[in-house]
Amino acid sequence: MLKALRSSSLQQARFTTGASYLQSSSRHGTKLTSSFNGVLRSVLADKNPKLFQRIFFCSDSSDGSGSVPESALEETESKSAAAIVPTSIKKPDDFLTVLALPLPHRPLFPGFYMPIYVKDPKLLAALVESRKRQAPYAGAFLVKDDPVSEATGSDTEKNIYALKGKDLLNRLHEVGTLAQITSIQGEQVVLIGHRRLRITEMVSEDPLTVQVDHIKDLPYSKDDDVIKATSFEVIATLRDVLKTSSLWRDHAQTYTQHMGDFNYPRLADFGAAISGSNKVQCQQVLEELDVYKRLRLSLELLKKEMEIHRIQESIAKAIEEKISTEQRRYLLNEQYKAIKKELGLETDDKTALTDKFRDRIEPNKDKIPPHVLQVIEEEMKKLQLLEASSSEFNVTRNYLDWLTALPWGNYSDENFNVVQAQQILDEDHYGLTDVKERILEFIAVGKLRGTSQGKIICLSGPPGVGKTSIGRSIARALNRKFYRFSVGGLSDVAEIKGHRRTYIGAMPGKMVQCLKSVGTANPLVLIDEIDKLGRGHAGDPASAMLELLDPEQNANFLDHYLDVPIDLSKVLFVCTANVVETIPNPLLDRMEIIPIAGYITDEKMHIARDYLEKTTRDACGIKPQQVEVTEAALLSLIENYCREAGVRNLQKQIEKIYRKIALQLVRQGAQNEPESVGESSETSSDKQIEGATESNKSNDEPISDTTTEEAEVVNINDSATLADEASALKDTEATITIDKVWVNEDNLADYVGKPVFHAERMYDQTPLGVVMGLAWTAMGGSTLYIETTTIEQGDGKAALNLTGQLGDVMKESAQIAHTVARAILAGKDKENNFFANSKLHLHVPAGATPKDGPSAGCTMITSMLSLAMNKNVKRDLAMTGEVTLTGRVLPIGGVKEKTIAARRSGVKTIIFPLANKRDFDELAPNVKEGLDVHFVDDYNQIYDLAFDHTQQK
User: Fold this and answer.
1) Is residue 828 flagged as an active site residue?
2) Name one GO molecular function term (predicted).
3) Helix (H, G, I), strand (E, B), or coil: what is residue 376?
4) DSSP states of 680-697 as a string?
5) CA distance linking residue 877 with residue 874, whole number of Å
6) Among candidates 274, 273, 304, 302, which has minimal Cα distance to 286?
7) Half-sphere exposure of 588 (CA within 13 A, CB side)
8) What is the pLDDT of residues 386-428, one digit of tens each?
9) Neighbouring C-alpha atoms within 13 Å toward the C-beta of 257
10) Strands 137-142 and 175-185
11) Which helix (H) or strand (E) holds 819?
């Protein structure tokens, strides 16, 4: 039983130990006389000399309660209103049936306070009720570890409170402590231990109530030397332990004030209680009734505590020695930065640079490859060690700038909607079915896989067919960033692979610049004019492109400047070329070729009307109602001015037309707002008149709908204002009109000049020795005539002259044609000795243009036979193909381009080699429409087609 006396000379003392507090008073006249208390007093008094000037009292665990005279109580009550007045309750020995309180963490030793939280409402209510019934005692028993579960401390408490009755009893240790309930605040119950208990049997289940026996220590001899020696060793160890922690000194102070003099059992309990050992070892001390064995166990625990403390000190000392230099450097750097900040000198220093680089990589630190992070960290450490004035500092800074600016692992969200991509492609381009289908296939594969891999696509075709603009439309359809760079004439490998950092002014290659510019790792990169790569003293760029444009290698593309692998596997490369024959074969093998042949007249009409005209009109600031270009004018423009495969020249001619129209409209004042005569500024500010009339008609004459537009006047609500406006307009002699400009076939020459080409390329009657052939150039397909005439005739004068800037292949084709023509003529007409007695001259027009290629053989043979047999070739016939000495026709290339060129020239009959039939069948129906195409594998078939139904002159 706890009793407290408070006199005028004594004050109440509160001691906080760990998570609990202690309030106790001292007993009058009590003195520390034993050697144990003398040693502890010497230790504690060194730290707190005033501690032992007052002596506090608490109930003794041996006799159960302390008696206080009534006069002392009355004196205390009179002197202090805050004194604790106890009530007469039973002694602890009287409690043989107690409530069982489970302790989840540590056992409670006699003389120590412990706060616990009681979550069970029934148990908490029973504790409150027993306290009201003058029975503030309960049994505190440590919970055994569950061998099955590995739950944490909080989970163990929840599991314990869920147990009831025998299940809970089986989880409790038999030996516990009789605990006095000092206070109950909410769920917190503060206990103080008194004596040891042993559970004998269970009385009730909920709340668990048990019957206990009060157990005492086994008899021992105070004069036993072994016990004395052990106790002194415990005291010596305690002295060392108490010097290491103020928390343990507080424990010692509280215990001595509460329990009074130390003896051997109390010394053992105290040592075990303040040690940091686990609960099982402490429970062993609590259950041990042999005083000597208990002292031995406590000594072991204290020795372990000291050893742990020594290890802790050695670890702390080692760590302190390790970081002391870094801490000193850090403190000096912080002071240095503070001084520089006060002086305004902190800008552009190494720390600011490092912070900038770290801020760049911090959002994407998880996406950056580990080897790149390692390089960045090493370079930043190197930057801190370099002087700002050294050249190496600038090299490292630029290198870090590039490394941290790249979009490591950042990908833009791609569009996998095929319908939306189809709409975007159709908005930007007319036709080009092959290209659009290939892009939609790419999107479909990406949607099924959930991700897309980069590909290398090469768009080949003549200039002006829209290869570059197709790349931009593909990027928009895929929702990717777009980057374009041209490699035409590029002769430096460093532009592709980057420079070494050892060179002055070194920079990374185009791909690294691209990734930094677009900010994503999956852009669409358009490599323009890849067929025009140069080759100089700085290496071969075409060979350097092999790694970049290889789907199997560009996942680890190595730039010479960065010197770390970069993943380009998600990049979609689109290359453009006019002629794939000039691309090196190893580079061509890495690409997927998509040919774009050119446009026929119908396609050019759609492109001009739906795309070019609208874009040019907006660029010139002309309204649609101000200009009308007729279909006949556009057709004449295409056929007589713009016969090339592409539409770039067509766009130039349309721009020329609209520029002249813009000048005409400005001269007429069509874009100026009308100003009424005699009109005040208040009534004319919100007024605008738009109209169109013929220039020779007056304002009062009716306006034709076919030539003019109705004037549109802004409505004004005020009727009086309208009347004033009408009178003002009538008084005005000069009326502003807008003429609608018509561009038709008759006045087209006024805008674009004289026709470049004749409207009809073919002869009305093909002359002798003239045959139309089909050629394939970098500008697309084209038609050209091959002409043969006789220079001189006579016995044995057989010869052949060639002109027209022919290449070696065409010269050989002409020689073969001359031989085959003689053989065929001999077979058709044995008496005809034309070739044996004639000196021939074969010419290919447009002599300023070099010409070469293996596809003019059959045309040359037909031209020579026409002259020799004096027969004209059909006027609407064109042919292409190479002929061997045996008369077999070999396949050629550019079937689509040549077919389009034939349609542009009005050819109705075309002769192709039989091996090219598959290429022709793949053409679009609008390209093949209206053509009579024959496929031959021997020249005799060409002879029948060319000279059929012809009359001999």
Assistant:
1) no
2) ATP hydrolysis activity
3) helix
4) -HHHHTT--EEEE--TTS
5) 6
6) 273
7) 13
8) 887 788 888 888 888 898 888 888 888 888 888 988 888 888 8
9) 24
10) antiparallel
11) helix 808-828
Cα–Cα distance, 306 to 608 (Å, whole number): 95
Q: Which tokens hold the place of 840?
A: 């021939």
Cβ proximity of 589 and 456 under 8 Å: no
Contact 140, 212 (CB under 8 A): no
- In terms of Cβ atoms closer than 10 Å to its own Cβ (0-12, 13-18, 19+), residue 50 is exposed
For 865-904, write each residue's pLDDT tens digit: 999 888 888 888 899 999 998 889 988 888 888 888 888 7
> What are the backbone dihedrals phi and psi of residue 402, each rounded to the nearest 5 degrees, phi first?
-70, -40
Residue pair 905/783 in contact (Cβ under 8 Å)? The answer is yes
CB 143 within 8 A of CB 103: yes
Which of the four pLDDT bands, split at 50, 70 and 90, describes residue 712? Answer: very low
Give pLDDT tens digits for 634-686: 988 888 888 788 888 899 999 999 999 999 888 887 445 444 433 443 433 34
Confidence check: pLDDT of 482 > 90: yes
Tokens of 324: 């002391």
SS3 592: strand
Q: From residue 872, give the alpha-carbon distance in Å to each of 490, 832, 856, 876, 936.
A: 50, 17, 19, 12, 20
pLDDT for res 45: 46
- Give the span between the Cα atoms of 769 and 800, in whole angstroms: 14
Q: How crowded is residue 949: how many other Cβ atoms within 10 Å of its Cβ? A: 5
Q: Which of 891, 886, 902 is nearest to 939 (CA)?
A: 886
Measuring CA to CA, how many Å separate 951 from each of 381, 411, 460, 625, 869? 93, 72, 44, 56, 10
Binding residues for ATP: 461-468
Averaged confidence pLDDT in the chain: 75
Instruction: Tell me the H-state helices in 344-430.
Output: 350-361, 370-385, 391-405, 418-428
Between CA 531 and CA 723 the distance in angstroms is 72
Rounded Cα distance between 571 and 102, Å, is 67
Cis peptide bond prior to 207, omega within 30° of 0: yes
Structure tokens at 6: 């408070």
Instruction: Indicate if 855 belongs to the active site.
Output: yes
User: Which one of the listed residues 855, 863, 866, 905 is annotated catalytic?
Assistant: 855
φ/ψ region of 3 (left if φ > 0, alpha if ψ in -120 to 50, else beta) reads: beta
Q: Which two tokens stand for residue 743?
A: 């561009």
632/673 Cα distance (integer angstroms): 34
- For 69, residues 6+ apart whose C-beta sits below 8 A from its C-beta are none
